[in-house]
From TrEMBL:
One matching Pfam family: ANAPC10
Gene3D superfamilies: Galactose-binding domain-like (2.60.120.260)
Protein name: Anaphase-promoting complex subunit 10
Organism: Blattamonas nauphoetae
InterPro entries named in the record: APC10/Doc1, APC_su10/DOC_dom, Galactose-bd-like_sf
Domain spans labelled DOC: 1-156
Keywords assigned by UniProt, alphabetized: Cell cycle, Cell division, Mitosis, Ubl conjugation pathway
Superkingdom to which the source organism belongs: Eukaryota
Organism placement in taxonomy: Eukaryota, Metamonada, Preaxostyla, Oxymonadida, Blattamonas
Family per similarity comment: Belongs to the APC10 family.
Amino acid sequence: MFYEYKSQAVWSASTTKGGHPIYNIYDDDLSTFWESDGNIPHSITARFETRVELSQISFFNTFAEEDSYTPNVFTIFAHSYFGSIEQVSTKTLERKAGWVHLPLKRPTGEPIFTDILVISIGSNFDLGNNSRVWQVSLRGPIRPKVPSQQLMFDEF
């Protein structure tokens, strides 16, 4: 079981082509998409109010139109505890439509904790410049809530 974090993020993009805004990537509508405007590389940034625990990012792609708009290399960066952005995952995609899943893990194998996630699109199939992303999913584990301990103080 996972918790979906995409609706908790404030999303932005390096560029956006008119008519295909960034909110299309999290609207749960597989017929809409975000489209960049300009030369590669492109980036999509998700900012959270507090650090969240993420274990997977997923992308929905389609090849219904021209392949040159479909990203084939994604690199994921996350804001670290030390104030820098660190690479946490890279994936070169195959030519197939549907959901593609990338694990987000620290070197220890545990999920990442971050307040900023950057999705970098390094290239498209057929050397296209503009990129299209239909949907993004950001998932993290569901953790049981630990009841807060009530502090008891003795008289001083």
